[in-house]
Automatic annotation (TrEMBL):
This is Putative transporter. It comes from the Bacteria. One of its GO terms (biological process) is iron ion transmembrane transport. It is found in: Membrane. GO terms for cellular component: plasma membrane. It is a multi-pass membrane protein.
Length: 412
């Protein structure tokens, strides 16, 4: 019994680390850096809003899995029908594929910083590395190693205090549009931050992992521990990155437009050791997110089509699932091979995540209130209260994202 409890505690702890790594992917890192350098901390309020939103979304998804044993896209097809569910699938695959492209580009950019070799040459290495890990590594090892190394990103919290931020910086926490920015640009980046925090692939991966690990009612406490501890810690990391760039760049009106620029204050405050920690953390976070997004493409299509699926299943038992993953990795690498800027891909991916978010959030909210699936674990009044509030937030963000992107030239 003692050994069994030890295994459960270890599993829960590593699940928390995975949540941290999943929250701080390349989209969050880049967006937090850009926002901090341009807006200071005047948009910091969006991060806790996004954290509460992803906690709500992930907890409902995990509870649906634990109670019904059904994966996200199985339920979406069943509840929405094959036609509407198919449109949902196409939109979700497009956004997840774009996010996968951004993550592969992020890996290439980190490897460029380490080696000095152009990121274009690292793209096939990044794509092959992600594919071979998915092909050969165990599911648990893949989760836990990237999640543990992703903790290195917490070096930004140390750097923030080493930079000795002025007391006046606390005044920026009050939401306000800076004098040199426009209202549409301010809200464009608010939606980008929100989209970075609530990317749909996180929930696809989280819920599908629950099916693979055969969650039941006994696992609800462990699932909630992962959600309620992991995502807030990831949010603190996001605020730390924003704070570092706000202290280092915002007073000089210098915008962070690359990962190398993000490393400058890290090097200034903590030297090469801090830079090493930051690079390892970013590489782990982007690699973990690339693995999760690649798996999510296979999960979504296989669950909708009724194919055999699972990261723990060998290719001979789930051939179409693994082929789907390989095809999406190749497509992502081909897009990057055209010379497109990975940072630009990242910025667009978080905005389109906000656009597509209602397509998965609404069905999960509906199913979480259905006793046929949930039994006595349906949403309570408090969960539904916040669930409906966030449904409104998600719908407004989705409707406003594209018009604001056009009006502001993608925040330029």
């Amino acid at each position: 019994m003692l050994q069994q409890n030890k295994i459960r505690i270890t599993s829960a702890s590593l699940g928390i680390l995975t949540a941290i790594g999943g929250f701080l992917d390349i989209g969050d890192i880049v967006t937090d850096g850009v926002v901090g350098s341009r807006f200071g901390l005047s948009l910091a309020w969006v991060v806790p809003v996004g954290v509460v939103g992803i906690i709500l979304f992930a907890e409902m998804s995990g509870r649906v899995v634990a109670c019904s044993g059904r994966a996200t896209f199985e339920i979406i097809r069943e509840r929405l029908g094959p036609r509407v569910g198919g449109l949902n699938l196409l939109a979700s695959l497009a956004v997840t594929g774009l996010t996968l492209t951004a993550e592969l580009g992020g890996i290439a950019l980190v490897l460029q910083l380490v080696s000095g070799v152009a990121p274009f040459l690292w793209i096939p290495v990044a794509a092959f590395g992600v594919w071979i890990i998915l092909w050969r590594a165990k599911y648990s090892a893949m989760e836990n190693v990237t999640g543990l190394l992703g903790l290195f990103l917490m070096v930004f919290a140390v750097v923030f205090f080493l930079l000795r931020p002025a007391p006046e910086l606390a005044g920026d926490l009050v939401p306000a549009v800076p004098q040199d920015e426009t209202v549409p640009t301010y809200w464009y980046y608010a939606i980008a931050l929100f989209g970075a925090a609530m990317t749909p692939y996180e929930v696809f991966f989280f819920s599908s992992g629950g099916v693979e690990e055969r969650w039941g009612a006994r696992d609800l406490r462990r699932m909630r521990l992962n959600v309620f501890v992991g995502f807030p810690l990831g949010g603190l990391g996001a605020l730390a990155i924003m704070g570092v760039t706000a202290v280092a760049f915002q007073p000089m009106s210098v915008e962070v437009d690359s990962l190398s620029a993000l490393m400058l204050p890290v090097a200034q405050a903590g030297g090469l050791v801090a830079v090493g920690f930051a690079l390892v953390g970013i590489l782990a976070a982007t690699t973990g997110a690339a693995l999760e997004t690649a798996l999510s493409t296979g999960y979504a299509l296989a669950q909708y089509a009724g194919w055999s699926w699972g990261a723990s299943r060998p290719p001979r038992e789930a051939a179409r699932f693994h082929v789907t993953i390989g095809v999406f990795i190749l497509i992502a690498a081909a897009i990057l091979a055209t010379g497109v800027d990975p940072i630009a891909v990242t910025e667009y991916s978080v905005v389109f995540s906000a656009v597509a978010l209602p397509l998965t959030y609404l069905p999960i909210l509906v199913v979480a209130n259905d006793p046929e699936y949930m039994g006595d674990q349906v949403n309570g009044r408090v969960t539904n209260f916040f669930g409906l509030i966030f449904l409104g937030v998600v719908l407004v963000a989705s409707a406003a994202a594209i018009p604001l992107m056009i009006a502001t030239g993608a925040g330029r």
